[in-house]
Amino acid sequence: MNFGILVFDDVEELDFVGPWEMLTMWSKVADGPSQCLVVAQSPGPVKCVKGLSINPHVSFADCPRLDYLLVPGGQGTRREVANRALLEFIAAQARTCKAVLSVCTGSFVLHAAGLLSGKKATTHWASLERLRALGDVTVVEQRYVQDGNIWSSSGVSAGIDLMLAFIASVAGDDAAGKVQFSAEYYPSVARYGGYEGHAQAPAYLRSTT
What we know:
Number of strands: 11
Number of helices: 8
Strand content: 15-25%
Structural class: alpha/beta
CATH topology: Rossmann fold
CATH class: Alpha Beta
Number of domains: 1
Helix content: 25-40%
């Protein structure tokens, strides 16, 4: 099983590192993907939005056929929605992928690649109205959303929850539980500053107040 995570300049770090941690932990403790690949358009370092520099495993030219593909978000997505080479890569892989996932504003890249029309999806709270404005996406204010073989999640850290839910759907609750336990991912119930009640907060956050 080949699982690819797409990266590009100005990608949000945790959007892909969080899912990467869950993904590779799945391979380590619960018979997850045999190959986990970070994919970029070209060889060489990719500079993330907060300054982290990473080296992808493969470029578009040498990427194998993927069973699953995850597209993160970040400021770079505003540029990448017009990157024909990147959109064609996503569309081509999606034709044979069992599922395509997005984190945060990665949903806009999926839409630009033709994968979100007529689908339910979500994104970062600050971009919910921008996603609605596309007109052909049913925006759902949830931590993560599945519509057929398309998965999307809200902002940044939500990619971790997306990946655990995805693992549970593909490999079962026990596999997801092993990953969660090994990663010690049991988020604190602490809330700071009351921002979960902010007027722009998505519905699933406001309902916790």
